[in-house]
């Protein structure tokens, strides 16, 4: 750790910028948006599950501890004269200062940098599997779209490394699936759902894009919940929603059950493993996040969960028009604008909407996604 032209440089380039608080040697510490404040549980996670690498070398570990509440920053850096900082500033206050009235933004360059922070071999491929579907008209998925038949795929993704894999989203059982039919019986492939369950059990780690039943139920409503929870990473916002305001009673967590999961809290980006970055994106739900993946081949993927239900929402910068959902429209429009810019300019980046069945079929046909779980 060293002082360098107004910021503190830690390890391989993690920067913690600061401003003077009046006395020169007692600066206010704030996190640069490119660096996530992660829980110690997340930092230790890769070391515990293996795969031959650890996140600990990439992120400051000793003082970024989140338990029931944020703890204070203490001796985190140096002042402009190279002396230890004496002032302690509470992270909760910093979060308020940073987040108040901010419009959602993201930087693909910062995300790419974060993807290189954790050493290790990059993932080799991404697979997708559809295990159920809902049949709605397209105007529900994309505001202003024609009132024509459209399929919403229920999917999971598998990020495959040479020595294991990470699951993104976890499937759901038949009862949770029935909730989404709203009285209408919709297709549910029991055999594919079993494949999802086996893949989730075999994963080194499980991430979820957000806390709705079709994405998170597979790590909650399962006879293997205790086994799976120990390798499932949920964000604090996802846990809070599941504890206090779940989408349906079936996925409500008790405090005891919540304590079994690995819970992380980060401000903007969280390098999760070689080639994987979590991107905080509240809007569709409070705990929504996008997941960036770069393969060893250089192909880039952005799994956007339910930020858009159909890629036409990204292409046309149009939100949803489903009366049963409650979203932060301002945040979602900022996210759709950003995604639209990437869609137009980043030809090596594949933006993937979880429920777009047309896109899923096309990407499988082109060999961009694999069509089975390993």
What this model shows, in words?
- The N and C termini lie far apart (42 Å).
- The chain has helices at 40-49, 91-99, 108-115, 138-141, 174-181, 190-202, 213-216, 225-229, 236-244, 255-258, 311-315, 329-345, 357-365; strands at residues 2-4, 7-10, 14-19, 28-29, 72-73, 89-90, 125-137, 149-161, 164-168, 205-207, 232-235, 262-264, 269-273, 276-280, 289-294, 300-303, 349-352.
- It folds into two domains: 2-102, no CATH class; 113-365, 4-Layer Sandwich (Metallo-beta-lactamase, Chain A).
- The chain is built from 13 helices and 17 strands.
- It is an alpha+beta fold and 374 residues long.
- Strand 15 (289-294) and strand 16 form a beta hairpin.
- The strands form four sheets. It has a six-stranded mixed beta sheet with strand order 7-8-9-10-11-12, sandwiched between helices.
- The protein is globular, with a radius of gyration of 21 Å.
- 28% of the residues lie in helices and 22% in strands.
List keywords for this structure.
374 residues, alpha+beta, Metallo-beta-lactamase, Chain A, 2 domains, six-stranded mixed β-sheet, five-stranded mixed β-sheet, globular
Please give a quick description of this structure.
The chain is α+β, with helices and mostly antiparallel strands and 374 residues long. It is built from 13 helices and 17 strands. 43% of the residues are buried.
